[in-house]
Write a structure and sequence with these properties.
CATH superfamily of the largest domain: Vaccinia Virus protein VP39
CATH class of the largest domain: Alpha Beta
Radius of gyration: 20 Å
Helix content: 25-40%
Bound molecules: tryptophan
Largest sheet: 8 strands, mixed
Number of helices: 9
Length: about 325
Amino acid sequence: MSSAALSDLATSSRNDFLDDVLAGLSQSQKSLSPKYFYDEAGSDLFEAICLTPEYYPTRTETALLAHVAPALSAWVQSGCVLVEFGSGASDKTRLLLDAMPQITTYMPIDISAGALEPAVDRIKDAYPGVTVVPVEADFTQPIATLDLATYPAVLGFFPGSTIGNFTPAEAAAFLKAARAMLGPKALFLVGADLVKDPAILVAAYDDAAGVTAAFNLNVLKRINTELGGDFDLAQFAHRARWNASDARMEMHLESLRDQIVHVGHHAFAFRKGETIHTENSHKFTVKGFGALALASGWTLVEQWLAPDDAFAAFLLERF
Ligand code: TRP
């Protein structure tokens, strides 16, 4: 791409960011889209969250996938392409590649170039027989460049309970879009966190070392540096709440006093205690997930549960 085209791209993504921030902060319940968490610093902070003692999903899913991968191998034909949505550091991917030499191509999709590039280099080094085709894209939008028609088998992979970060309607829309993107031969392995004791959930999203707090606040830092904002990060606090009626964890940034914040020449008033809603993390039941899949064109053909039903891996097949 020419440098002019590249700078056009940068300008348009900055405009999207600005438009989204201005719209989100203008609502009566202020909100910011979680996709803006993941700049380079945010992606690094997310990797650090995964290492905190409280954040059980990563460890639990990784241990689960070590059992799932050899069992899944029976379903997967040779020459398969593995398409991962939100690949991040591509750590869990290794469990699949280790157990399934039938996978000859890996397509990681991630919104963060800073996360994608080093992850791709590590996978190429460790799996010289696997062709890696990285896709820098927002997977919540249709991706025109995915061309999977020539592969004899397609395995989609969506770990991390990222599906829980969508609303139920968005999750169904995503599963339908993934069905279209992955094509007629697709199987889809989806990792999902399950409903459990709220105390465990709240701790997982508010670790004692404050890594999750720093991750949440990082979005304000981005607004300051990229959009000319003047958020005082010391005047906002990270809050993690269990919303029982919607079966979801909610992340907010709470204003610690009455204050006016500017983004460019736009001003936004905050009352003390008012929050910006930044993320939801829906928790599933096996029954609820099966119904969601069915409503989106997929049959639930296998499920694997971690000890204490802490986390699930679901295998979906197109119908
Ligand atoms: N998919 C992860 C989850 O819902 C993302 C996540 C983990 C997250 N910790 C977070 C998002 C804290 C926002 C804030 O568990």
